Amino acid sequence: MDISHLLDDLNPPQREAVTSTSPAIMVIAGAGSGKTRVLTHRVSWLIEVERLSPYSILAVTFTNKAAAEMRGRIETQLNMSTRGLWVGTFHSIAHRLLRMHWREAGLPQQFQILDSDDQKRLVKRVIRERELDPAHYPPPQVQWWINNRKDEGLRAANIDAEGDHYLSTMVQLYHDYEAACERGGMVDFAELLLRSNELWLNQPVLLKQYQERFAHILVDEFQDTNALQYAWIRNLSGKDTQMFIVGDDDQAIYGWRGALVENITRYEQELAPVEVIKLEQNYRSTQTILSAANGLIEHNQERHGKNLWSDGEEGEPITLYAAFNEQEEARYVIDQIEASIADGADRDQSAILYRSNSQSRAFEELLMQRNIPYRVYGGLRFFERAEVRDGLAYLRLVANRNDDAAFERVVNHPPRGIGNRTLELLRAEARRVNQSLWTTAQNGSAWGLSGRAAGALQKFSELIEEIARECADTSLADSIETTINRCGLLEHYAGQRSEKEQARVENLEELVNAGSLYQPDDEESELDPLSTFLSHAALEAGENQGDAWEKCVQLMTLHSAKGLEFDQVFLTGMEEGLFPHSRSIEEPGRLEEERRLCYVGMTRARQTLCITHAEARRLHGDTRITSPSRFIREIPADHLREVRIRGQVEAPVYRPGSSLSSAQPTANGLRLGQLVAHAKFGEGVIMDIEGDGSRQRVQVEFSEVGSKWLMTDYANLQPQ
Ligand code: ATP
Ligand code: MG
Question: Is a pLDDT exceeding 80 seen at residue 701?
């Protein structure tokens, strides 16, 4: 058998990792050292050389995109279909299990997935129903709290809140929330995993079947698993299951969401003896990028430390650009990207990374203006757009009338005369009789609704029933088309002719396309296509959709860049308070996590890395003067090259010997050579002036703190 194609392009420790027969293996290695590649090759190796059926392998990846890529690569390597191979994220695998074993899991067959927005709506409702003050129990916080408990494997009934008023209220809310989900047959993201872990615990026969099925479990990005994911994996691994995990403690970036990097040590102890394999050669980045990233991460105290080297080229220095503000930052970045595209680079080889989602807008606007196709990961994607979610809510009701979140979303959208008061009464009654909103709405006049309100609800119910009848026994695409055409949303938006409304209509039409292109996984093909499509939409909402589109410039948060690589990377918004994020500056542990996030960002770059920061930034409605991120200082200076574009200079630059006093004052009265005072920096002399109006900034040589560039509008300089 010729196995060279599986091993030829691997170094010796990588080969060991691919071929090892140890019962427990752990590859702990730095960024770009080939961990994901090794994991993929190992799956191919097991199938082709060890002759295992794909059916007996489970591979857990971090995103659905990574899963699709992995499957594609394995199929190319083996030149065969990998039907039966389970590869996916924890969530998607747990979801598949619950779909297959809904009865054992205590769920209705048509259970729906509640995305984070629906979840918040439901949480809000239970807070309101307990008549609690949302100021003391803010819905996002309660939602976060519930999800964290679920991630720890705890149900409301398992939490002991004895004597603690706040805690017992939270538990009560958790309890109400669980009951509402139960009534509606709804499952949130954290629940997917919790419930499938309970499936393991409560159904030993079923568990044994899976333990025997999966001879191999492989997990990528293990450093970011949480307690529940760890337990889930451990429960699933039987006595003969071979475990293979890969990870990097320097890239642990989900501590804030309950991930436990300690799971690496725990694994090593619990599965001892574990074969530990280290990979030290980085194949991704230039030496400069790698040394800069290594220099940064050395500032973390808590790390195992490892050597990572590259025999690639030295590469260009990392460029550092200080922009006036976020718009100018975007302009610089997009200029660079345009130039690289003009030089023949692929658009999808440029990535703009940022710490917070909202930063994408400035880049998006400019990309749109210049007609450069781009894709945002981690922002509002197709399945998250309001109108798409409205359309999906109708479909969800068609699939499951008891889906309260969907009911609430569309019962009066488009408006059909069902007011808030009616809804409040309906909610109260539903709670009293412990029924879904739908069921309760059926006999409104019997429990006290006015004839008009009951009639309006009745009409809504009839509409849904009619749509459901028309959808019965038709294809998925036809069902979606019927629902979208009949529900009234199209007319609602079409009536308002603005461009935005037009885009909404297009998005709804696109939903029909999405349905016709949708192909359920092999194992889901016997299930109801509408339910699987809806789950797919909910799971996909967190990620991008498909690769069929043209090549796009990539925009994403640093968190979603994990595991990916690009020729050219822009690390933007590197400012104190933004990155590191203000919430993390005070706590050493969180700050270290931010630094790891920066390390993740830097190590995404293959050829060139550019770091930018803006000196003034509009955030949450007001403009703030910022200072460069400490992470910039922590990168060894010899790897950085600062660029300053002087095209903006409009005033003469001070040169020794020139007559300062003759310099013309600018519109706001500042002139070169003028003595000024600043509230924080003290006295100084204006050395340079750039730009004008709101973009004007001045360079001041302060006697105490040295030279600084300041935005004139915000610096409030007092002439002396
Ligand atoms: P991360 O920690 O960022 O997830 P990783 O360790 O998973 O990184 P990979 O993505 O698997 O690293 O590999 C990084 C790059 O190096 C990929 O482009 C991969 O194809 C390439 N690579 C890995 N090993 C080799 C090798 N032995 N020879 C050539 N290229 C390699
Ligand atoms: Mg990887």
Answer: no
